[in-house]
Batch of 3 targets.
Target 1
Amino acid sequence: MSISFNAGRPAGDIVASWWEGLQQDNGGRAQLRRCKSPEEVMLEPAFHRLLNRMRGLLESEDSLSAEESYRRLAAVAGLLSHVKTRNDKSLAARMAESQGSRPRFSSLRFRRLMKESFDDLYPAMIRVIRQLDKTASLSDLANSVFYWGDKVRKDWALAYFPNVVE
């Protein structure tokens, strides 16, 4: 079974509720924002509040080991701590948006991001969130990071390139 972080789905509702609570927990949010990797996120109490709510769903995830599921959820939690405002638009489409006469992300920068392995994705995604004014779709961010791989890269390319004007 595959976990979906979309609104109206159990994992999506849990993550959205956790994120809303995190907006009121300045200390927990700050601790998560200081983390430099998913492994550091796993040491924070705010992450464990999310993990405890998600554990049953993660254990039913058959495409990843439990350890890898926890690590990927930690990456999601850490990255969501950098998001201040929700948006419904996909990250890739937002990267293609015009900022003056150029897109927010050049196609060269976008292609570099697409080459990142999951192990190197965390710091790159922090920079993406910052460049998008700390605004993101919670579900798109969570789904994309949790399942980072060839399918997500293809989906992002299909959302980015048709919308970019360079």
Target 2
Amino acid sequence: MKARTIILTLALCFIAGAVGFASDVNMGTWKLNEAKSKFAPGASKNNSVVYEAAGDNVKATVDGTDGNGKPTHSEWTGKFDGKDYPVTGDPAADTRSLKKIDDRTLELTVKKDGKVTMTGRIVVAADGKSRTLTSSGTDATGKKVKNTAVYDKQ
């Protein structure tokens, strides 16, 4: 009887965690809408961003192109708590942090070798069908850049 109670409790906790992520408007697949976006010349572009539950964390998978048009792929697993978590596959970043401001807004900080290289704000539209990332930082040559990327929910 005790084992059954423990298993049932664990199952309910798992379901509650999954429901919590499912209700987060940031979760899901987002595709770049280039027509509505504005990029600095030679900027890299994230063509798709996928946020999915990974246990009690969030996993972000990003596919795009660099400034030369070559394909890129990076992954980040962490929480929307403003703490730095490692990034793999991004030569311009070692860590990313995402901090939840409200139900539809995240703040983004990207670092390389402990130095902030980009900051941004991600806002999901009230209807949940699009999101806009407004970012600023420095490119590989040290030039200041500003980008606005608009994504459509898939």
Target 3
Amino acid sequence: DFCPTTMVEMANMMKQLGPQAERVQVIFITIDPARDTQELLATYVPNFDKRFLGMRGSEEATQKIVKEFKAFYQKSPGKTPDSYTMDHTAASYVFDPEGRLRLYVAYGQKSEAIAHDVKLLLQ
């Protein structure tokens, strides 16, 4: 449930940035590469904003980046093997143009607040 909500907030943030949004790249990185194929991401992610990119890596690469971001994820079994869900850290990270981490955006932060902070970084 976190992912679509966060993606909607990011899309709203991009609208609020107006022309400055052209200087921002939103990237969705899956923590479930087994289920989230590149084809699936290529159709799902741009539904929120055509500029958004979806990325996936191997299970090993996913584990490495999750550790690097000090995040968390785990598979929670469902009633059938294919009906599992993924529990994970519900936050977004904002990097400046030089690739430095500048903001940690907690789940539930509204697009207005995110846009305000991103505008400050774009100055």
